């Protein structure tokens, strides 16, 4: 079979630089248009804009008081106060009002003593001052803020609210802005169908793949100031692709050809584009994102973006967004960087830079990075990520605990409110996060699923704020306490989240008639297991031991999943005949459920975090009616002890003293 | 005169907390609406959204290769390779395609040896493998990314491009979002006129003030997810204000009453609102922003926002935006904070928190903060600011060089490309900034005007990258060199920016017939001077000395301005009859210009910055044709030596060795 060969893979920065050079991108001039200020928010100035009028437009009072001619007051002193007649030598004035003709200073109200005298015709007011005014004191002078003809804003400014105000103050009501760059997006691939037309049965059979990259791209382009047009899906045929690109190039400034998902589709792309112009790069040394094709056709940029969304995202961020920024003379998008400690090792293949998305939490003084799924197709890793770790091409990766640089995808400040839960998976954690955000938008619960024991280990290393755990001690039949005593040094609070029913999930209709754990050893029954260190695995092993069943007798014992929901999905898809999981997972996917037992699912929370605002907010939610009701609706949960502190562990040192 | 008394001024955080409590803001529920994904960018989810389908929807190949039933391959080994017939026991498969019925593993292409054999009817293909496949190897399993019913995104999520992708992958095409909060803006003030209706002569006479706060507010509200309606301007009359607020409250979720500029207008506001409901705060302990009024009327929030734009901005940021965020269950907006060193002292009045806007530059390892004009009306300070310094209410301010905390208004990364110029003012610096940004969008030139000598002092303290200077040594008649030798320790490059004509600016038509410096001493001639330490002031003093004229004989010698343009504005406005400035300033405002001499305006650049990318980019622009031509168009400049290194200073230590 023909294999794609990437002979000379350039690092992304170098590929981008060469592409921009081949394009002569810095010389390209977007058209301009005039935008009224009311329609100019976030438009980008195409040239410097100068003030048409000075601001303020007149000499005005900067204080409430009396306006005077300073030279008239030079004789005033405490010993010899000066009397000025209001309406003649002095004039009441409020802040912001223009100085009357002949005046060049303001005396603050606080320094004016008022005398009222019955004059020949009416009452007369006299202002008495004990200090000379110097010229232009307390006057906001004409042009103090800006003088007509001065530049208010430079080109490349993305107009924010205050910029609009500054322009208005300078008398500028219409501004020259770059016209939006026009980007045409061509989705390709023979099995690709528009999102709204995807039929469930075709999707399940793999006959159709819903097209949603163009939705992501259009949104990215809109946020970068461009205007995207999504063209009809083109099949994986060179002639069809060529025609579509040629047609798009007639109007667009930039054409994005989104490759099909088939292995050779980026070769099609490169082949077609070679025939239409120059290919700057066929493949880039970055994972995900490798099969990106950069080309110039008809003097315009064409980019072949890989089909998988994570790869596609990197191609967009590395090549399309910087080009749109350059065209609009804007700073290339750049992200804030911080140091974080990964909670797991991050192995990587040398020779290729790798971008790994992570969740982040500030635990004490440490920012902890929890790696998300790596697959190029893992679209949830895009939406869940708080940051990106770049593992350089010459590296084999990073060890757990070794600090790495992380590019932030959310404002740094937003991290402060994130409670990081590492440990056992339970669906109620997602529910808890939603309710917490609703009640306290400044907080959120970020959870990573590594099993109960993994959670206790993360707590021990100081890498999370709390851990979900349901570890049965086979000897005593008691949950969690022994594992905490065996593994943790610091004092913790054990808080009951839920009691939950564990049981066997089977295929719809339970065709194999599975009735309990003992049936898992029957020939022809394929099991799907949870990973080592998970409480569910401990429960299974405990039951197997009591039944005297060796794990080796269970087909699929080594087939591991990391969450209850993935166990349920494995059973639903027919990959396995049975799995052990919580009832809520069975209910969610409509699978039969054979109860095995009720277990205690607790949160283990170090004392030092317990009194913090975030944990207290979480506690309030856990103890609230909304959480209880929603949990009960999920089925398979007991909430009698929900929110109760079931045990307090004094820690190792206390235990020894 | 009645003085406003602020009896109990609360700090802004406390005022906000009380207002939210009076409003019961956390309990307020915005309505919801369904948004199709194509219209959902940056809308905010009103509830958690769960996946409607699993993704991937089928078990698919994660590698190119052959799909097999793993159990069929268990006998394969290097010693005893296994042959599988393609089309029967093994199937070619590309990445992403669904596994054929009966298959549960993929063997990578690299591990497959292909044999072609002439069979009875046609050529037969056989795959030969030397290693067993384990079940589910190289398979992207159904639900690996998300399982139907799992929560994709929590409420309060502002939907970004990748979020739209994750929702689409989960089969969700419409999402529940908060309806946009409705905000009505009522501009008030008897002299206020809509922006487009402001007539030049009325503005200059102070009879009309253009209304542009509503433009700023509307943009801020739009960016915060709300929808603003700007109502007609209301005069400063309690009854009119009451009626307008009452009408607005019928439909709006929040009413912003923008106070007039007159002194008592916030008292009107507070008085009117007391009659309509509860006033939580009449005045807040923050400068600018003090005259803010927070109220609840008809159960809804009403805020009286001060008239000056800087005060208004703070009221919006402190009260309106957090309320809109809370309603949408979003994180309150928070800014990244860094440490910076102010280049000037920042005095402040105790008893009142002060917010001071600053420009920022990274000079070596130090972030330097240059304070912008403080006035509540200085709208350019809003658009030019890179950050905000908060001077606490119990502080009398900060000393120069003493680090302060700065809230960033631009991404940290954008600061890296800013060259900070502190020193003499020249209009060509703004031009240079525009051309630099156009040629190299990653760089910009930020300049602060403190006069030539102030610039050298800033260089000496390591607080800027370069300084514009035109300091004449009266003894030798040579520019800049002596001042550099006297003041700087480190090696610097002296680069000619421009030669420029200095001269006297007079009122249009030169009614006083001013012909030269000597005329400034004539009775009845009012002069406007530049500040001490400026090169222009040095030039004036030099000329006065040569003429034997004592400064005391010049009226207005002590009336100081900081820029050429402000001198020109002072003359144009009639505040002075003459000033000394560059010809370009006279040309800009159309004033007569009487030449006094040509001087050398240089950039002083430390050696250690000279070779850097940013300075080199600046040099390229200075030496380019575009800069030269634009400078010549301004008039009064010579560009013969522009871009030339006119002198190199070896520094103090080198001089001593």
Automatic annotation (TrEMBL), chains A, B:
One of its GO terms (biological process) is Mo-molybdopterin cofactor biosynthetic process. Catalyzes the insertion of molybdate into adenylated molybdopterin with the concomitant release of AMP. It holds the Pfam family MoeA_C. It catalyses: adenylyl-molybdopterin + molybdate = Mo-molybdopterin + AMP + H(+). Keywords: Magnesium, Metal-binding, Molybdenum, Molybdenum cofactor biosynthesis, Transferase. It is an enzyme of class 2 (transferase). Pathway: Cofactor biosynthesis; molybdopterin biosynthesis. This is Molybdopterin molybdenumtransferase. Belongs to the MoeA family. Its EC number is 2.10.1.1. NCBIfam families: PRK14498.1. It comes from the Bacteria. GO terms for cellular component: cytosol. One of its GO terms (molecular function) is molybdopterin molybdotransferase activity. CDD domains: MoeA (cd00887). Residues 184-326 form the MoaB/Mog domain. Its cofactor is Mg(2+).
């Amino acid at each position: 079979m023909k294999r794609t060969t990437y002979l000379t893979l350039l690092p992304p920065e170098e590929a981008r630089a060469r592409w921009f050079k081949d394009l002569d991108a810095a010389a390209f001039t977007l058209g301009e248009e005039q935008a009224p200020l009311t329609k100019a928010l976030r438009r980008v100035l195409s040239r410097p804009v100068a003030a048409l009028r000075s601001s303020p437009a007149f000499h005005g009072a900067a204080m409430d008081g009396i306006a005077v001619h300073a030279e008239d007051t030079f004789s005033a002193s405490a010993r010899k106060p000066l009397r000025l007649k209001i309406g003649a030598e002095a004039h009441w004035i409020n802040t912001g009002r223009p100085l009357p003709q002949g005046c060049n200073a303001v005396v603050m109200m606080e320094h004016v003593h008022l005398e009222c005298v019955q004059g020949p015709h009416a009452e007369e007011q006299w202002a008495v001052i004990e200090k000379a005014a110097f010229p232009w004191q307390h006057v906001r002078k004409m042009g103090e803020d800006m003088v007509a003809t001065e530049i208010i804003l430079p080109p490349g400014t993305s107009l924010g609210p205050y910029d609009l105000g500054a322009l208005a103050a300078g008398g500028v009501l219409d501004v020259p802005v770059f016209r939006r760059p026009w980007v045409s997006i061509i989705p390709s691939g023979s099995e690709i169908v528009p999102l709204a037309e995807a039929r469930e049965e075709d999707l399940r059979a793999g006959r159709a793949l819903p097209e949603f990259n163009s939705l992501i791209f259009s949104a990215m382009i809109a946020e970068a100031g461009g205007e995207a047009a999504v063209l009809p899906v083109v099949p994986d045929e060179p002639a069809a692709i060529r025609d579509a690109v040629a047609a798009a190039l007639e109007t667009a400034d930039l054409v994005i050809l989104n490759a099909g998902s088939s292995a050779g589709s980026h070769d099609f792309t490169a082949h077609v584009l070679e025939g239409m112009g120059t290919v700057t790069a066929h493949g880039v040394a970055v994972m995900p994102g490798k099969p990106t094709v950069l080309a110039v056709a008809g003097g315009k940029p064409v980019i072949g973006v890989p089909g998988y969304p994570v790869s596609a995202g990197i191609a967009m961020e590395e090549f399309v967004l910087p080009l749109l920024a350059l065209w609009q003379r804007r700073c290339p998008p750049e992200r804030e960087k911080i140091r974080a400690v990964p909670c797991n090792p991050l192995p990587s293949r040398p020779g290729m830079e790798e971008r790994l998305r992570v969740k982040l939490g500030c635990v004490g003084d440490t920012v902890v990075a929890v790696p998300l799924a790596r697959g190029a197709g893992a679209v949830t890793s895009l939406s869940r990520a708080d940051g990106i770790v770049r593992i350089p091409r010459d590296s084999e990766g990073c060890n757990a605990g070794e600090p790495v640089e992380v590019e932030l995808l959310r404002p740094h400040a937003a991290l402060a409110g994130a409670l990081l839960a590492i440990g056992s998976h339970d669906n109620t954690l997602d529910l808890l996060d939603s309710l917490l955000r609703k009640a306290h938008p400044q907080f959120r619960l970020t959870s990573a699923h590594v099993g109960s024991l993994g959670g206790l280990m993360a707590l021990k290393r100081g890498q999370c704020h709390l851990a979900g755990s349901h570890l049965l001690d086979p000897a005593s039949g008691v949950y969690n306490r022994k594992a905490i005593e065996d593994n943790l040094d610091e004092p913790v609070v054990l808080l009951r989240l839920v009691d939950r029913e564990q049981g066997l999930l089977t295929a719809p209709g339970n065709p194999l008639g599975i009735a309990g754990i003992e049936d898992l050893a029957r020939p022809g029954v394929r099991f799907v297991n949870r990973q080592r260190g998970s409480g569910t695995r401990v429960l299974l092993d405990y039951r197997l031991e009591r039944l005297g069943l060796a794990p080796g007798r269970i087909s699929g014992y080594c087939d591991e999943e990391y969450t209850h929901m993935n166990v349920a999905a494995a059973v639903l898809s027919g990959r396995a005949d049975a799995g052990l999981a919580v009832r809520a997972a069975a209910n969610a996917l409509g699978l039969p459920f054979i109860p095995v037992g009720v277990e205690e699912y607790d949160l283990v929370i170090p004392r030092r975090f317990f009194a913090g605002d975030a944990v207290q907010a979480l506690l309030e939610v856990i103890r609230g009616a909304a959480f209880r009701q929603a949990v009960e609706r999920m089925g398979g949960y007991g909430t009698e002890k929900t929110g109760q502190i079931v045990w307090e562990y004094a820690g190792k040192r206390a235990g020894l003293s």
